[in-house]
Amino acid sequence: MKTAEHFQSGQVLLIDKPLNWTSFQVVNKLRWEIRHAHNIKKIKVGHAGTLDPLAMGLLIICTGKMTKEIHIYQGQDKEYTGTIVLGSSTPSYDLETEIDETFPTEHISETMIHEATKQFIGEIDQFPPVFSAIKKEGKRLYEFARAGEAVEISSRRIQISTFEITKIDGLNIEFRVVCSKGTYIRSLAHDFGKALDSGGHLSVLRRTKIGEFHVDNALTPEAFIESLTTK
């Protein structure tokens, strides 16, 4: 069992973030539980890369002195699996918002789907979703979006080293992506639909790897909390 000194000197925790939790909620929950379990008045806890509430999977949490190393983990490549739904789009590019437009899909073949992945491999310019936490003029982009205000968004240079289709089930396209820091998989889903002369949005997303860290070695928040009091 880890002691108060372990957490204060610095730990790297691998957490499997559940659906509908924010990354901030995970950090706050773990901080409170560590403090409560070890009677610590104050301890630094932070995460190395946000996951949207609708995304699941690997979240690296650093405690104590290891919070100074967060930038190292943030810069590492990420691996994701998920599902893109073709034929419709949403303003947020995922299920946070309702479908606002539908598109024809009769022309799309399995060959086209596999071929379309190739144009996203390598260094590409990607526009982040307007429903994102990126700051512009002192406000988060999602604040402009929710207020119905138009805002100009600049593209970002990202790198995708792997984009493979793992299953095609009607309009539900399952995939695996390995990409650089700053990549928005929601934007990839949106752009992938456009590349097929249709539309697309993200319905499922799970982060499976950050660098050499794998979600198979991660604990759920509940399992981590239980470990705090288990010898």
UniProtKB/TrEMBL annotation:
tRNA pseudouridylate synthase B C-terminal domain boundaries: 186-224
Active site: D52 (nucleophile)
CDD domains (alphabetical): PseudoU_synth_EcTruB (cd02573)
Name of the protein this chain belongs to: tRNA pseudouridine synthase B
Role according to the record: Responsible for synthesis of pseudouridine from uracil-55 in the psi GC loop of transfer RNAs.
GO terms for biological process, alphabetical: mRNA pseudouridine synthesis; tRNA pseudouridine synthesis
Gene assigned in the entry: truB
Family of the protein in this entry: Belongs to the pseudouridine synthase TruB family. Type 1 subfamily.
Molecular function terms from GO: RNA binding; tRNA pseudouridine(55) synthase activity
Catalytic function, reaction form: uridine(55) in tRNA = pseudouridine(55) in tRNA
Annotated EC: 5.4.99.25
Keywords per UniProt: Isomerase, tRNA processing
Domain Pseudouridine synthase II N-terminal span(s) in chain numbering: 41-185
Database matches in SUPFAM superfamilies: Pseudouridine synthase (SSF55120)
